[in-house]
Amino acid sequence: MEWKLELIVLPVADVDRAKRFYAEQLGFKLEVDYQPNEDFRVVQLTPNGSRCSIALMRNKDGANPIKGLHLVVTDIDAARAELAGNGVDVSEVFHFEDGRQLSGPDPQRGDYNSFASFSDPDGNEWLVQERKKDPYEN
User: Fold this and answer.
1) With 0-12 CB in 10 A as exposed, 13-18 as middle and 19+ as buried, what is 79?
2) How many Cβ atoms sit within 10 Å of the Cβ of residue 62?
3) Residue 64: pLDDT band with limits 50, 70, 90
4) What are the tens digits of pLDDT across the range 8-32?
5) Backbone conformation region of residue 62, classed left if phi is above 0, alpha if psi is from -120 to 50, else beta
6) C-alpha to C-alpha distance for 65 and 120, rounded to whole angstroms
7) Structural domains of the chain ordered from first start
8) Considering all CA atoms of the chain, what is the largest pairwise distance in Å, rounded to the nearest integer?
9) Residue 45 · residue 53 · CB < 8 Å
10) Sign for the pseudo-dihedral over CA of 32, 4, 27, 96
11) What is the pLDDT of residues 81-138, one digit of tens each?
12) Which DSSP symbol is given to 24?
């Protein structure tokens, strides 16, 4: 049995604001924006190159934001520069050594050990993580 993660639902206070952030600032592709009535709306976006999408769910009650979402890229410096250039408040690049977070990319540029982080306007927290080879390429 194959188990494929294809959709993550993110709680947001303002769907239009979140849609602008993900589409315009992060460059996610808008797949669906469907609202048959005032109480129901589905907005689904997909990161470039991803097989998993996000769905924005309006949450007027202020549910806890999601933490620890990961986007994997082949060049952390270029990804960070793109985010910053699009107005995203993104951290400096950092890595971990002996359980401690240190500034800058991993000196060996090992897979999964160079990061940058950012949050969306609703506090959903993302980590951008470097892996030199795209796992979906043959």
Assistant:
1) buried
2) 10
3) confident
4) 999 999 999 999 999 999 999 999 9
5) left
6) 10
7) 7-130 (3.10.180.10)
8) 53
9) yes
10) positive
11) 999 999 999 999 999 999 999 999 999 999 999 999 999 999 999 999 999 876 666 5
12) I
Please give the pLDDT value at position 39: 84
Structure tokens at 119: 């949050």
| Pair of tokens at residue 18 | 């979140």
Q: In the 8-state DSSP scheme, what is residue 22?
A: I
The one-letter amino acid at 15: V
Tell me which residue has tokens 């359980």: 99
d(CA 77, CA 126): 16
Q: Residue 135 is encoded by which pair of tokens?
A: 């796992």
User: Can you tell me whether residue 102 is helix, strand or coil?
Assistant: strand
Q: Are 41 and 96 in contact (CB under 8 A)?
A: no
27: tokens are 């460059």
pTM as predicted: 0.90
Place of tokens 């980590």: 127
